[in-house]
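Quick one from the shared queue. A colleague (R.T.) flagged Na+/galactose cotransporter as missing a structural entry in our internal table.

Convert sequence to structure tokens.
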Amino acid sequence: MLHLAEGLRLPTNGLDYTLLGIYFVVVLGIGFAARRSVKTSLDFFLSGRSLPAWITGLAFVAANLGATEILGMAANGAQYGVYTVHWYWVGAIPAMVFLGLVMMPFYYGSKVRSVPEFLLHRFGPSSHLLSSIIFAVSSVLIAGVNLYALALVLKALLGWELWVSIVIAGFFVLAYITLGGLSSAIYTEVLQFFVILAALIPLTVVGLKRVGGWGGISDTLSGEKGDAFMTAWDGTGIGSGNPLGANWLTIVLGLGFVMSFGYWTTNFAEVQRALSAKNLSAAKRTPLIAAFPKIFIPAVVVIPGLIALVMEPTLGKTKDGLQYNDAIPVLMRDLLPNGVLGIAVTGLLAAFMAGMAANISSFNTVFTNDIYAAYLKKDRPDEHYVQTARWVTVVGVLIGMGTAFIASSFSNIMNYLQTLFSFFNVPLFVVFIIGMFWKKTTPAAGFWGLLSGTVAAMVNYFWFYKQGVIDIPTDQGANFVSSIVAFVVGSVVMVAVTLFTKPKPAEELAGLVYGTSSPGAPELPEKGDDVWYRKPALLGWGAMILAALCYIPFSF
């Protein structure tokens, strides 16, 4: 089950609770301050498209740096070793660069408010409604994981009852999103980014000192797990065995291309931050700015997982004992003094809230704009949709409380999330990438490609893998295979359907297909956009080269 060990308790005192209380007050203060700027639905859903790139860039990476990232990737570090860095340097950076340089001009230039709305323009109502439903379902599923995990952490670490933890956490997320909309979520995420780092950096530094530095980790775990456990690529040859249960081909194609591009380019919880930028240049730079801190996140997430495995060798070995998800809380319990411990608990709380807020804010946008306003209640006053979005936020949190319990069958919450991504994000990426680069792709092809890719991923996971029809060593390996299956099936179906159905007229595809120009006058660059550090191409290539260089120390 998704749980922290019952006996895991932190020696918190009044100082720690005071720091936690101050954080709550600041968060609510941001919500009340942001409320004054919310006058229209565009303000509520996209901050009026007024935010600078450095704000949206930090919010972009913070929205991803949630509880699932911190607990999940630390769990992956303890379970799979250094192989976990693939989720960052292959499984994130190239896709973030592609989003900034290639896809943001389509998203931002078309002035859409959500990712499904882009599909409405490109493929029509059928694909739009299907994608909106998929986004809404996946958003509350992932938000529920964050909320439930937060409640369990507070119960295990602070002794709070589960229902108390859920009510308190849900109240604060509801309060600041309902008050200030996306602006509140984004400014809070920027604060949370620094709070999270303030929690994780001391934990990593003190932990490394305790276990004898990187050399101590390598000697201990190489002796216990084998040399491959401490490298990124050793043992990934086709037919070779490794803790991850995947070879270089499934890592590069399944994780590095299909899952990664599927997540980063279509996940509205991330894209929404870039859409709130003040101009196209800032929107393009948003994921590129976020890529640089993302490169170094393994140092404060994956390495603590390895440290925890050295300090607690029983992690994940027994069903009723410490689980891989316990890696970060174990280090907090054993290493941090009061005061610093309060900052760490606050950082962990901030991470859960950031992840949940990102998904709830994307849920209220997609449901209100792409389902309610488009198909249920058309042409109502703008104030009506803002009020509806606030109620949808409440409903989203309540649904998230229920759906969170689905995650209880996974001892590693990152395995669960990657399963969701293979079901929902990969098929969307297939539709986007083919529709953007092949003008003849038809509306019918978009709908059937999305549906068939989703079904194919589920069939592969629940039937071929879970029923033992094919032998895949791990859940993560199965997720990589499911992603490849979804991509291949969705692509084949889209090509086949396109050959037998009618495409949209060329004049309706302006700005929606690569090589076509957006209608209307081009957006003029702002003063200073020609400075070297504001050039998207330079930022993109810099992030790619830096990520590739990071592999060198871990490749041999």
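Residues 14-31+44-514 form a domain with the Sodium/glucose cotransporter fold (CATH 1.20.1730.10).
The two ends are 36 Å apart (CA to CA).
Added to the table.
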